[in-house]
Structures are given as structure tokens and as C-alpha cells.
Write a structure and sequence with these properties.
heterotrimer, A: 304 residues, mainly alpha, 13 helices, 68% helix, elongated, B: 325 residues, alpha/beta, 8-stranded mixed sheet, 4-stranded antiparallel sheet, 34% helix, globular
Chain lengths: 304, 325, 326
């Protein structure tokens, strides 16, 4: 479309039919969506859900006689183990497929835990104000000042290494950002007329926070969550890499990269490289999608 | 007869949705004339197209809008044939605008002096002492005391009324031929509004400036304007000199509007209200856009869009009731 | 006076201006409301009119218990509302409701209209869902909206319709007093008349009292029985609508009339030009607060603050021009 504001008139203007087919409407709504990212994440979800069907071999039990087989396209590789095998003879591809389940479940669960804690504290702090606000914000600041990885390692040392403990730990690491952002929004929301009218109607403070504030900041909270998924995936991988994350023999990508570390020096590159590639793709896709979602969900930003 | 300062002929500005499924005919065939030193009031409610009209004249439309027809003659030149660079030369110098909210019109990070200086630097290439003197003169002209002090201050240090006067000073700084004021007093208190309107009237008398007032408030029109245009759903449904509009309104909408406003002197216990809502411009009703709400609507009104009929001297209306009189 | 629904007695609200981050010291007081008294009778409309900084909004907030008065009292049905708690507070909330200016922020965008209207009922009464639904339908038809509106969201309605929803909600508890804060100033002109007529009809039907806060003098004159003209936290004139319309006494009230826009180009009105800006409530002028801008100021006006004195029944003015100190 040309940029000048004037069109030379060429007759009457008729609008195109207002009722578009469903597919065109969906296409219009999703215009600008990062399709590659969507594709990658869809693939991730797909493999996570159908891991049992897709994985050619058992990810946890290996054949020691077949250890350190390279990927299929190299010599000594076989098409039965497309991406090769690791030091225990386990199929790398199967482990990656099952690993996607771990990464996905842990990331989503952790983000939800962090979001729930942070949003709740943000709403309470922002709405109640006063000393409650001061105390909660000082706690948030202190928490933010702690080095996250060290905190994670400390917590992991205290708790047994397991998937769900990782979720709790990650949740505890990342709630602070939500608290700050949500509190800021609540500070402006609570001046809105409908909140004042709710007070006039006699609503309790809890009811106001639940019915009037929460639904109106839900959008921001969800946007924050999508933006954080990438970070959480990396942190989980890091923790697993450091040995304080998911416990062996469960196949987590970070753990696989760690176990394959020694192999990098001796030429068994496929043990670490493939899991790292997956981490990278998942994080890039999640971040790109989060960015797009942030703009898409805010009608004002969308116009730009 | 001197050439009019501004002449609009059948201006049409439409908004196009991204997929091309919705066309909003925001301005649909508006024509009027404004002479030097005259004041025109464009009255309408939200969605009437009055602001889009003024933005079309200045060619400051959002990306979704296009001028699809008509002509805009400013001092004998068709603005629609001008390039963006030529329009930039005109805006701020010959053709200026003041808006409703002074806090949005003034940049909070620059001093008053710098903001008044901007158009003078760009259009008149003024510098140094000459520029400083002109700024002080302008501030005095809008009745701001102690201009030497004020020009170093920032917008947030001043009251709403003063800010709006500064916006006015910026507007008239390059001695424009036409000033468009879009709801300039809506955000001001009543007594400040009165001062401000008196100021604009005085400025106009001194400089033969032509003004267009865009407002929903007929009181402003009664006080300030020589001629009036009433807009509804993108069309100019009536235009006439101001006394004619108040004494002999021809269009039912104009009549209803005049009676819907409580007056200080008239003690009617109940106001005339116009039932219904302004129309959805993406799906306007067939025929005359006012017909669903018009107490005098006839069958023809529901089918055909009325053209402009002459009612009296300089008095025109778009209403089938006035056909052939 | 004791059979009035609401009595405001010498109400004051001073906001401290503080300096310092940790140890805050008070360096000044914004005297937003500085000694205001009037009464609201059953079934009548009291209008508060004035410009920015006059204190009308702060007064309203205190009556709604959104702010605590610094001193003075608000008596509702013979009971001082300060310190009300529990059941008594609930009864007060049921008796006093409000409609605010901006129809676009008065309704929670995430709630359905039916829930918005029913909320005061749901909070204060133990109605069943069916009863609530019935009541909502009745309220919707009272304000001229279709019954199907209850299932829709606010963004599907125009400004005027949203204001009707807000009015329906305010009526749900059958209050005795509804505070209307600039109820029509954000609406289109043709819609204003609809809403003003609706408010009048509802008042006739339910004998509800209104406290109308507005800056548009003509609208206030049209709807109110009694009017209080406020300036910088004080009432300068208190009169019936008829008295104020025919004979505004205080120079500020006269200036408001003079400054109001004409309703006809030939309308001649006495030009009372008041100069200058509205002063800040942080540092109000000494004596009569209006004296720096008053065209009739006398020496005493800058020294002694005038008090409200009755000039005739129902008409009070706070101005040295009308006291017999000459």
C-alpha cells in the first residue's frame, strides 16, 4: 500500500465481503506470528506427548556392547541408532525425545509456580500498600540480590534431586520479576473507578483482589510467563549439567550434555552437541514466541 | 470578492481496515467555504467526522485513513496535490492547529521558550535576540505575565489555562492565515475557558486570522463563530450563519441538538432527548444517516441519501423535508 | 434539620505535604475542604458546583468513606458515619451508592454486565442465583437496556449505555442517596439529555436523593433543588436552584454565570471578568479566599474571612458585601 494519503478517485468503493472463511480469519489473526518458532515448539510438545510412540529405544536402559556408537551417517554408525549411543549404550535420539518431556514439563510447571507466587505477592503488595508493601518489597529486593545459581545449588543440595523439586526450586528463583511488574500494574489499577465502586459496594479487600485486580493483570502475568520459559529451560539445563538437577538415569538435556562432557575431548562429540542444539532451539523459539505474544496481546502495541 | 482562505469541495476521507473488510466513511462529501478573518464552527458529536475533517485539511491522517475524493483549496492552491515537503512548509506557518489537551501538546522535557521558538526557527529562520524578543512578544500577546521568567520554565510548572495559552502562542507564532482549534477549551475550567475564548477573539480581531472551531459544545459556537456547520455521521447536514442556525434550524438533528442542552435562562423541566445512538460508521443505515433517530423521518429518508438543498441565503441542509422550497 | 437524610457539619480535609524520605516532616497543608456544612433531604437533589480545587470531589470521597475527614462530621440518618463498623457499616453502604464520571473505567472490563450490576447485592444480601438474575433483569429494564445485555461485556456498549449500566448497579441495593460525580460530562451531547431525563425519572419513581457534583452550571441548575457553590474548599453561596438562577449574590457565583457559554449568539449577559488563575489550595489567600480575583473586593475582604449568613429563607452567602458590618 502506498504511503501517500491521497488516492486518485476511481469510482465507488465496495468493501470485500465481511464474512471471511474461518481459515482466512485465523490467518489474519496470526499474521506476523513467528511461524518457525511456533513450529519448533509444536514439535517439542508433540514429541513430549508422544514420546512413548516416537522413541525407537528405551532411554534408560542401554546395551553396553553398543556404547559410543556414532550417528548413522558416520562410519561405524548404524541406522538403528540414528544419533548414536552414549557411554552406557543408550540411544541418544530416544533420550533426546524423552528429554523434551522433562524440559517441557519442568519449564511450564516452574513458570506457573513462579508466576503464581509472584503474582499473588505483587497483588497483595500493590493493593494493601503500607507496611505490607514495604516488607514484601524489601524481601523481593533481597531475594533478587542473591545469586540465582548459587541459591539453586544450595536448595538442590538440601532437597533430594528430582524433577518436582527442580520445579519448586526454579519457581522460587524466578518469582521476583512477577512481583515487581504486577505490583506496578496494581498500583495504577487500584485507582480505577470500578475498584472504587467495589469498595463503595462493600466488597472485602480479598474479593477486590480476586475479582477485580487478578483478571485484569492476568494478561501481563501470562506475557511474563511466556517470556520466561526460555530462561527457565536454560536454568534447568544448567542445574542438570551441574549435577544438581534431574537425577540420572532420567534423560534431561542438560544432564546429557554433562555426561557427554568427557566425550568431547575424545571425539565422541554427538553426546553433548545434540542435547545442546535442542536446548538452543527450544529457548530461541520460546523467546521469539514470547516476544510476539507480548505485542499481539496488547492492542496498543499492535498498531505499531 | 477576495478569495476565500479555505474551500472544501466534497471531501471524502475513508478508513480502511487491514484486511479491507471494513470501510468507515468518516468524512463523506463535506463542502464549505471560509473567508479571511471569519470563524467557522464545526459542531458534531463523537463519530461525526469533525476531527477527521480537520486532520484531512492538515493531511495528518493515521495510516489506515485515505482521502479518496474531493478538493481542499487553501489560498487558491489544492492541498491534495502538494508533496509532503510542501505540506511541512505550510503546517505551523500558514496553517496551524491547537488541540484539546495542553499536556499532550507540550513536550514536558523542553522549556516553554524552546517550544515557542521551534516553529519560528523552522519557518522564519529566526535566531538570537530577534527570536527572544519575538517569544516575549508572543507571551505578552497571550497575556502571560513576566514572560522573561516564564520562558525558562517547564510545562508542568504552569496551570492548565496558562499551558493552553502557550499552545495558542505557538499556534499563532508565524502569523498563520488559518488556525484550526479542536476542542481547545474542553479540559479547562469554566472561568478560565471564558478568559481563553476572549483572548482568541481579541487575537483574531488584530490579525484577520481565519479560525475553525471544532467542538461538540454549541455554546462555544454561539459565542465565537460567524458560520456554523453541523456534522452527523460524516456528512455536513446543515450549514448557515450562526444566527440562522439558532433561530431557524432546518435539519431535525440541529433542532434536537439545540433543545438537548440545558440553558441557564430557560426553565424547561425536561430536556429534549434524541433517542438511540449515533450510527456505526462501518454499517451506516440506508438513506439519510439520521433517519433511525429522526422524529420527522419519512419513507424517502430511509431509502435515499438527501443531497444538499438551499434553505435561505447561505443556508444549506441535507434533508428531504427541504426539497424544492 | 434533624429529619434530613444526610447532614454535613463543618467538614474539613487537610492533606499534609511532607518532605523527606524516611523521616517525613510536614511542611504544609493542602486544605482541600475547609469547613463545609449543608444538608440533603429525602428525595431531593443537592448540587455541588465549582471549578478545579474547590473540594467537591474530596467532599464526595469523604461521604463515600474513601477518605477520612480531618475534622467535622457526616451524619447519615442521625448517625455519625465515622467509626462505623460491622453491621452498621454494611447498612451505610446499602444506603449510599455512587455513579462516577468516566463510563470507560467504571465497569470492570473482565466482568459480565449482569455480574457487575449484581455485585452489590451479592456482597450484601444472601440472594440465590435465580433471585439475583431476576433483580438484574428488572434493573436493566428500569434503565432502558435489553434483558440480553446481562450476558455481554462492557466493551460491547457505548458510553451512554455504560453509564446506564452504572446507574442500574447503583440502584441495586435501593439506596437512599446516590452520589453522582459528573455523570454526563463524558458523554455526547445528545446522550446527556437522555441520561439526565433518566435520572429525573428514577428519582421520581424511587424518591432517592442525589448529591450531584458537576462543573456545568446549567446542568446543575436543571437537576438540583439546592445548590452549593464552592471555591477553594469553602461554600461561598448556598441557595435553591430558583434563587441561584434568578439572583446569584456572591461575586464568584455571578462570575460563573457570566463565564458560562451562551445558549444563543445574541444572548447578552453582564460581563463579570475575573482575572488571574485559580489559586492553589496549598496557600489560599488570606481573609476571603476569592478576594484577589474579586472585582468588588473591599479592604476588609483581605483581612477577615466571611461566614455563611442567611440572606433570605434557603439562601446563604459568605461575602462581606452582604453583611451589615458597613
Amino acid at each position: 500500500m502506498d504511503s501517500s494519503p491521497v488516492i486518485t478517485p476511481t469510482g465507488t468503493f465496495t468493501a470485500q465481503p465481511a464474512v471471511l472463511s474461518l481459515s482466512r480469519r485465523i490467518a489474519a489473526k496470526l499474521r506476523g506470528a513467528p511461524l518457525i518458532s511456533l513450529g519448533i515448539l509444536s514439535l517439542l510438545v508433540f514429541t513430549a506427548v508422544f514420546a512413548d510412540v516416537l522413541a525407537p529405544h528405551n532411554p534408560e536402559v542401554g546395551n553396553l556392547r553398543l556404547r559410543y556408537r556414532p550417528p548413522a551417517w558416520e562410519t561405524r554408525g548404524s541406522s538403528e541408532y540414528i544419533l548414536g549411543t552414549d557411554h552406557m549404550g543408550r540411544d541418544v535420539l530416544s533420550r533426546i525425545i524423552y528429554g523434551s518431556r522433562i524440559s517441557l514439563v519442568v519449564a511450564v510447571a516452574a513458570v506457573i509456580v513462579a508466576g503464581a507466587i509472584g503474582t499473588a505477592l505483587g497483588i497483595i503488595s500493590g493493593y494493601l500498600g503500607g507496611w505490607v508493601d514495604q516488607v514484601l518489597m524489601r524481601i523481593t529486593d533481597t531475594w533478587l540480590a542473591l545469586p540465582p545459581l548459587m541459591l539453586a545449588i544450595l536448595l538442590a543440595a538440601v532437597l533430594r534431586p528430582s524433577k518436582w523439586n527442580i520445579v519448586i526450586i526454579l519457581g522460587l528463583l524466578y518469582w521476583t520479576r512477577y512481583a515487581r511488574v504486577i505490583r506496578g500494574e496494581v498500583l495504577s489499577l487500584k485507582e480505577r473507578d470500578y475498584v472504587r465502586l467495589a469498595i463503595v459496594a462493600g466488597c472485602s479487600r480479598l474479593k477486590i483482589m480476586w475479582t477485580h485486580l487478578l483478571p485484569n493483570i492476568a494478561n501481563s502475568a501470562v506475557v511474563l510467563m511466556t517470556l520466561q520459559i526460555g530462561v527457565v529451560i536454560i536454568t534447568e539445563a544448567t542445574l542438570s549439567f551441574l549435577g544438581v538437577g534431574v537425577a540420572p538415569p532420567e534423560p534431561a538435556w542438560g544432564l546429557m550434555a554433562s555426561e557427554g562432557k568427557a566425550g568431547l575431548m575424545t571425539g565422541y562429540w554427538w553426546l553433548s552437541v545434540f542435547p545442546c542444539l535442542c536446548i538452543m532451539l527450544a529457548v530461541l523459539a520460546a523467546s521469539a514466541l514470547g516476544d510476539w505474544f507480548r505485542v499481539w496481546s496488547d492492542p496498543q502495541l499492535r498498531q505499531m | 470578492m477576495a478569495q476565500p482562505v479555505l474551500e472544501l469541495k466534497q471531501l471524502q476521507t475513508y478508513f480502511f481496515s487491514a484486511q479491507g473488510t471494513r470501510i468507515v466513511k468518516a468524512v463523506d462529501g463535506v463542502s464549505f467555504t471560509l473567508n479571511e478573518g471569519g470563524t467557522l464552527g464545526i459542531v458534531g458529536e463523537s463519530g461525526s467526522g469533525k476531527t477527521v475533517t480537520s486532520m484531512s485539511i492538515l493531511r495528518l491522517l493515521p495510516p489506515a485513513a485515505r482521502i479518496v475524493g474531493g478538493e481542499i483549496w487553501f489560498q487558491g492552491e489544492n492541498l491534495l496535490t502538494k508533496s509532503e515537503a510542501e505540506m511541512r512548509d505550510l503546517r505551523g506557518s500558514q496553517l496551524t492547529m491547537i488541540l484539546q489537551d495542553p499536556m499532550m501538546s507540550l513536550n514536558p522535557l523542553f522549556t516553554i521558550g524552546e517550544q515557542i521558538a521551534e516553529p519560528l526557527r523552522i519557518h522564519r529562520r529566526m535566531r538570537g535576540t530577534g527570536l527572544l524578543e519575538r517569544i516575549k512578544e508572543l507571551l505578552r500577546g497571550v497575556r502571560i505575565p513576566s514572560p522573561e521568567v516564564r520562558l525558562r520554565e517547564y510545562p508542568h510548572q504552569m496551570s492548565g489555562g496558562m499551558r493552553q495559552r502557550i499552545v495558542g502562542a505557538i499556534g499563532i507564532s508565524c502569523e498563520p492565515r488559518l488556525l484550526i482549534a479542536d476542542e481547545p477549551t474542553t479540559s479547562l475550567d469554566v472561568t478560565i475557558q471564558a478568559q481563553y475564548l476572549n483572548l482568541l477573539k481579541d487575537i483574531q480581531k488584530q490579525s484577520r486570522l481565519a479560525m475553525i472551531f471544532i467542538t461538540h459544545n454549541i455554546g462555544i459556537v454561539a459565542k465565537m463563530c460567524d458560520d456554523v456547520g453541523v456534522m452527523y455521521a460524516g456528512k455536513l447536514v446543515e450549514r448557515a450563519p450562526v444566527r440562522t442556525i439558532f433561530n431557524q434550524p432546518a435539519h431535525p438533528y440541529t433542532e434536537a441538538l439545540l433543545h438537548a442542552v440545558p440553558s441557564l435562562t430557560d426553565r424547561s423541566p425536561r430536556l429534549w432527548s434524541i433517542e438511540g445512538q449515533p450510527p456505526d460508521l462501518a454499517n451506516p443505515p440506508a438513506g439519510c444517516p439520521f433517519n433511525p433517530r429522526c422524529p420527522k423521518a419519512e419513507d424517502r429518508c430511509r431509502r435515499e441519501v438527501p443531497p444538499e438543498f438551499q434553505v435561505g441565503e447561505n443556508h444549506y441542509t441535507r434533508c428531504w423535508l427541504w426539497e424544492g422550497r | 434539620m434533624s429529619d434530613n437524610l444526610v447532614e454535613i457539619r463543618d467538614l474539613k480535609k487537610h492533606f499534609p505535604v511532607t518532605k523527606g524520605l524516611i523521616f517525613q516532616e510536614t511542611i504544609g497543608l493542602v486544605k482541600a475542604v475547609d469547613g463545609v456544612s449543608y444538608a440533603i433531604g429525602a428525595g431531593e437533589t443537592v448540587g455541588l458546583v465549582g471549578e478545579s480545587g474547590c473540594g467537591k470531589t474530596t467532599t464526595m470521597k469523604m461521604i463515600l468513606m474513601l477518605e477520612k475527614p480531618t475534622s467535622g462530621s457526616i451524619i447519615f440518618r442521625g448517625q455519625d458515619i465515622q467509626g462505623l463498623a460491622g453491621k452498621d457499616l454494611k447498612a451505610y453502604r446499602k444506603g449510599v451508592q455512587a455513579v462516577f464520571q468516566d463510563p470507560y473505567s467504571s465497569l470492570n472490563p473482565r466482568m459480565r454486565v449482569g455480574d457487575i450490576i449484581a455485585e452489590p447485592l451479592a456482597v450484601n444480601e444472601a440472594f440465590s442465583r435465580a433471585q439475583l438474575k431476576e433483580r438484574v433483569q428488572a434493573l436493566l429494564s428500569l434503565v432502558g437496556l435489553r434483558p440480553g445485555a446481562a450476558d455481554l461485556f462492557p466493551h460491547e456498549f457505548s458510553g451512554g449505555q455504560r453509564q446506564r449500566i452504572a446507574i442500574a448497579r447503583s440502584l441495586s441495593l435501593n439506596p437512599s442517596l446516590i452520589i453522582l460525580d459528573e455523570p454526563v460530562s463524558a458523554l455526547d451531547v445528545s446522550i446527556r439529555a437522555q441520561i439526565m431525563n433518566l435520572l429525573q425519572d428514577l428519582q421520581e419513581q424511587f424518591s432517592v436523593s442525589y448529591l450531584l457534583i458537576a462543573h456545568d452550571l446549567a446542568a446543575v441548575l436543571h437537576l438540583s433543588t439546592t445548590i452549593a457553590v464552592m471555591y477553594l474548599g469553602k461554600i461561598v453561596e448556598l441557595a435553591t436552584s430558583e434563587q441561584l438562577r434568578t439572583q446569584p449574590l456572591h461575586p464568584y457565583a455571578q462570575a460563573l454565570f457570566s463565564a458560562a457559554l451562551p445558549s444563543h449568539p445574541d444572548e447578552q449577559r453582564e460581563e463579570i471578568i475575573i482575572t488571574g488563575e485559580i489559586p492553589s489550595p496549598l496557600n489560599p489567600p488570606s481573609g476571603c479566599r476569592f478576594h484577589p480575583r474579586c472585582p468588588f473586593a473591599k479592604p476588609v475582604c483581605s483581612e477577615v474571612e466571611p461566614v455563611l449568613k442567611q440572606v433570605e429563607t434557603g439562601h446563604q452567602v459568605a461575602c462581606h458585601l452582604f453583611t451589615d458590618t458597613d
